[in-house]
Amino acid sequence: MKKITLLLSLFLASIFATLQSQSIATYDIVFTSTWNASEHTNAMDMSLPGNAHWSKLVGVNHNSDVDFFEVGQMATLGVELIAENGTNDVFRDTDVQNAIDALDAQQYINGPSLSTAAGTITITGLEVNQDFPLLTLLSMVAPSPDWYIGLDGLNLLDASGNWKTSITIPMTFVYDAGTDSGSNYTSGNNDANLPISIFDMSNTIEPFNGNDIGFIEITLTNVLSVEDLNSIDAIKLFPNPSQGKVTITNTRDLETVEVYNILGRLVTRIQVQQNPTLELHLSHLSKGLYVVKMTDINTNTKTQKLILE
């Protein structure tokens, strides 16, 4: 009996430790392009194309059960279309959505494009759940036959399971999707009769001869624990006093909001859809003092006085 009790205690401790470790990290991502004619052209063509630019920086955060592109593997249609013409609809709606449906990915990442060869693309406030800590990003080298830069499943957690605070990844090569037979920036789209697997155009392959084409910086800006997310005390209601429009934040685990008048009569009841923010529209109520009762999915409650003026 003592052995069973000990095993149960160890099991519960393990579960508690796992729950304690869960968190959501917020990151800012900056891709800095240094694409230029002196380092990224060949002897036959010493200039970049006049419309040199980058397609939207898109991607997904996911777990280790799925991979979106990999050297030595065939490109998906979604990756092919990004690499060949910079369109991301299939990647978003098929590659990423299938992974989300299979519970292997959290979200599609939709960053901006860059209209020039050199410059920066910035993604701010990306929230990453600890269940999906791997980061995949892609952007087309445009124009090009089927070339792109990217990150392939970069782990945002360190060996101890903590969020990495700062990461800088040099883009020392670009990827070739293996789906187009063109050999220079302005080659026409000539789909390869026999597509080959993805490879990196490093060192000996022109026009990319080992010179960095840019770098990606990833910076941790905030970490929010599950305890913060689930705490009924973290819920905030404002403004107060209010003229009728009231915002409630940190409502992910909130189930119901009830508003009572000074006589204790229920005047409004809202079933919450477990979104991070909730707006109450109470302008139809008379001016005066009310009590707002908030109940979460674990039946924890919080009450707060509200003045309508």
Q: How would you describe this protein?
A:
Keywords: Signal. Residues 15-210 form the Spondin domain. This is Spondin domain-containing protein. The protein is of the alpha+beta class. The chain has two domains: 24-224, Immunoglobulin-like, CATH 2.60.40; 230-308, Macroglobulin (MG2) domain (Immunoglobulin-like), CATH 2.60.40.1930. The protein contains four helices and 18 strands. The chain has helices at residues 2-21, 77-85, 89-101, 226-230, and strands at 23-34, 53-54, 58-62, 105-110, 118-129, 134-142, 147-155, 166-171, 175-176, 199-200, 214-225, 236-238, 245-249, 254-261, 266-271, 277-281, 288-296, 301-308. Strands 2, 3, 4, 6, 7, 9 and 10 form a seven-stranded antiparallel sheet that branches. It has a four-stranded antiparallel sheet with strand order 5-1-11-8. Helix 2 (77-85) runs antiparallel to helix 3. It is elongated and about 85 Å long. The chain starts with a helix and ends with a strand. Residues 1-21 have low confidence and may be disordered.
List the helices and strands and how they pair.
Blueprint: H1 2-21, E1 23-34, E2 53-54, E3 58-62, H2 77-85, H3 89-101, E4 105-110, E5 118-129, E6 134-142, E7 147-155, E8 166-171, E9 175-176, E10 199-200, E11 214-225, H4 226-230, E12 236-238, E13 245-249, E14 254-261, E15 266-271, E16 277-281, E17 288-296, E18 301-308
Antiparallel strand pairs: 1-5, 1-11, 2-6, 3-4, 3-6, 6-7, 7-9, 8-11, 9-10, 12-13, 13-16, 14-15, 14-17, 17-18
